[in-house]
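The methods section describes the discrete structure representation at length, but only in general terms. Since the whole study asks how a given chain folds, the encoding of that fold should be made plain. An entry of this sort, consisting of the sequence and the corresponding backbone structure tokens, reads as follows:

. . .
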Amino acid sequence: MSQPSAADRAEQSLTPETPVTTAVGIALSTFSIFRPSTLFVADREFVGCPSFGILGTYPPTWCALARFSAALAHGLTTHGADVSVVRVSDGSPSLSTRVIGELVNGSPASVAACAELLNHSDIAVIQHQYGVYGGVDGDEVVGIIDGLRIPSIVIAHTVLKSPTRQQRSVFEAIATRADQVIVMSEAARERLLDGCDIDRRKVATIPHGAIVPTKACMRGGRPTLLTWGLLGPGKGIERVIHAMASLHDVPGRPRYLVAGPTHPKVLAADGEAYRDALIEQARRSGVADSVCFDARYLSVAMLTALVQSAAVVVLPYDTTDQLISGVLVDAVASGRPVVATAFPHAVELLATGAGMVVAHDDPDALVSALRRVLTQPRLAGAMAAEGRRMAPEMTWQVVAGAYLALARRVLAQRRARV
């Protein structure tokens, strides 16, 4: 697999499934309020609850896509659906009973076998992200879809702003074969339809899900600015460390906490060089006592509590193109004020007041936004209240319900054509 994308480096969203460890190979194991363009369909003709076969990365793999797969699978089961997973192998076996086999990239036999495993379900859910599948620009996944005898829903986790001709060709081949293509934001939908030759009737928007905390958290001590996720270049941590020098006079002496281990691929390539550089930046800037790092991979319960304890969640990402952020969704659903650089998903999701966006190249605006949230309780309270208002429609159960309704519609349409 390739180096992690900017989205992967930035993300470590919450998931309801604790990472566990399955035998590698291709054999069976033992076993929101949606916008008007969003497809949220009522049940038609298909009676009962369809079974789902999900293809993608899956825990214990450390990446945003794996966490999404686990959360969606869990959400679907809460609706009574039977869910099996064909996991992209990364050398770390999984003991999850949902994992019925593993895809070995570069193996034609594995491609064929994985298609057959998915065919045991009523409908296949293909998670697509560049760098996950084998072949040229991941074109091996086209062979898997070609081997399906069941309908398929493709979830586009990454929509490139300027794809190469080959990348565009591969995704158009995937979309042509799929019964439905899902994006998770309106910005992603617009970019996909503008940049690729795809039947727009196939493209629907179902937002990214979130875990909504069920218990309140008492905040005390030093106000905490929080950024979390798998650590690596592109997260923009440098921006906030620089800003901390201008926030030393804020009452309570706020601290900045960066939570999460270094991304495994970054760790393999460069060790802890990036983390060490950030620690050195904090020391040189005179804010070492106000910047701290927690390199643990936290459990869901621990991460949920950590997010709730924050005075403000900061998403200072370098990218100007990020169309979906699971961390952003989790932060809003947790009822925490958010300050983010103006990447597309932040602009879209925070538009009603759950947070503030600042220009990437305006450090003064970042300092000003953080100071306002930290010193104006009414502003921070209004942001938190808007997040709590949005939260019930952001739960994984609601999102999984949208996938279930869509699956029933796709199955009904497929049967009507037979």
About this structure: Residues 6-209+395-412 form a domain with the Rossmann fold fold (CATH 3.40.50.2000).
